[in-house]
Amino acid sequence: MSFLTIFSAPKPFTNPHIATIQRNALQSWLHLGDEVEVILIGDEPGLAEAASEAGVPLLDQVARTESGTPLVSSIFRLAREHSQSPLLAYVNADMLFLPDFVQAAKTVTAQFEKFLVIGQRWDLDQPSLLEFSNGWVSRLQADIHQRGRLHTPSGSDYFIFPRDLFTEMPDFAIGRAGWDNWMIYFARRQGWPVIDATPSILAIHQDHDYSHLPGGQPHYNHAESRQNEILAGGANKLFMVLDSDHQLRNEQIHTPKPTLLRVLRQLEVNFNPPDGKPGKLQKSLARQARRLRRRISGTL
Questions:
Q1: What is the reported pLDDT for 221?
Q2: How far apart are CA 99 and CA 201, in angstroms?
Q3: Quick one: 277 and 235 in the same domain?
Q4: For the chain, what is the domain count?
Q5: Same domain, yes or no: 104 and 136
Q6: Are residues 50 and 148 in the same domain?
Q7: pLDDT score, position 212
Q8: More confident residue, 92 or 212
Q9: Domain extent at residue 291
């Protein structure tokens, strides 16, 4: 039995660049060792061929929205039903991971029974297929050091959690905004430690456009993103990495350092709590804190 099951719902492989970066991502997961199992979910064009080439299982009986977008709840259910690993990790299909991903999961598992591990990503322009020969890890690390850009802490592209968590969730649309933020809110509400692994996991996002989406528009502009927000219970229930209450640094779990962005985010949440009814003054103060945070971090 594997220690960790990575599962993902890739985009169609019809766009050559999307196909390239998804194949890169898949190979990086497969090179994490025998402790890691990989499962792909969906029936998008080209996915069956990619799964066959990589020798990984494909689960294609996924439930969808009326518009045909796979449901997050169905994706998670399928992964749980077809794996036995004590840990599950949903990852976006354009993400490259190194062995520190598994080590971080082991470190957290040794200290907590229930938890959610998230983190910021590093953005990288990667137009071609990677070579996964000896030294691939050090080459990627050097490339990120030279060309990588740390993304803002507005969302998360990976989630590591014990398999008995997140068994029930709203019918969010995958690949749209909001559902990932709800994951963080829900974990905090349940009292599970939410661990920011940014200092310990070099999560690499390969740049891409949005040609795979209707109108080529970013996911946060789509109606299903607005529907995701409604299903989450409103914008004030959309949390981010800044809302984590633990941080993994140097294989030790600490209280996050009170950076300016974290302080502003905490003020924003305090003035407009996710389960409260703030007055006009509180809402105004929350908006001011949010505007300042976004101006500093460059988020939308």
A1: 65
A2: 9
A3: no
A4: 2
A5: yes
A6: yes
A7: 47
A8: 92
A9: 258-297
